[in-house]
């Protein structure tokens, strides 16, 4: 059972799969309790976020101060991103970040939310709260689809 939980944690914390894979893996493949799989998947997906935001900040500062090329490149990326999307993000800041994390689609989730929070310079506490809420919503959606969707598929057979 510990090996199964390890795989749920690993898949939930990974940048590509996140809890969209961790929950179905735990419930459908390993036949674990959906409630506990939800808790483990959300927490393991969330625990990487503060480290990711801090890493992005320190990484960008380190390279911007040491290498002229990276300074120009990262400034260009920040200016272009903020210039194109700042008006939307200023108006819908929390809702945009929440939607980015809560909708369980490819290239959305906690990792993308952390990147967006970094790019738009959202304060850490606010970003963490919104990302956590988004993960809870995404976890509820994925858990519901996993539990009830699997039941519907079994009923069709």
UniProtKB/TrEMBL annotation:
Transmembrane segments: 35-56, 95-120, 126-148
Pfam family, one: Sm_multidrug_ex
InterPro entries reported for this sequence: Sm_multidrug_ex (IPR009577)
Superkingdom of this protein's organism: Bacteria
Keywords: Membrane, Transmembrane, Transmembrane helix
Name of the molecule in the record: Ligand-binding protein SH3
Taxonomy of the source species: Bacteria, Candidatus Tagaibacteriota
């Amino acid at each position: 059972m510990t090996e199964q939980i390890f795989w749920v944690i690993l898949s939930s914390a990974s940048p590509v799969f996140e809890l969209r894979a961790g929950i179905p893996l735990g419930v459908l493949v390993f036949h674990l309790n959906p409630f506990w799989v939800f808790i483990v998947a959300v927490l393991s997906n969330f625990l990487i976020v503060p480290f990711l935001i801090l890493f992005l900040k320190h990484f960008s500062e380190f390279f911007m101060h040491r290498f002229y090329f990276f300074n120009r490149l990262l400034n260009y990326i920040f200016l272009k991103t903020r210039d194109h999307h700042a008006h939307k993000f200023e108006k819908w800041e929390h809702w945009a970040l929440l939607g980015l994390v809560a909708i369980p689609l490819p290239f959305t989730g906690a990792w993308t939310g952390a990147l967006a929070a970094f790019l738009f310079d959202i304060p850490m506490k606010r970003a963490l709260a919104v990302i956590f809420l988004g993960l809870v919503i995404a976890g509820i959606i994925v858990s519901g689809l996993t539990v009830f969707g699997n039941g519907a598929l079994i009923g069709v057979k």
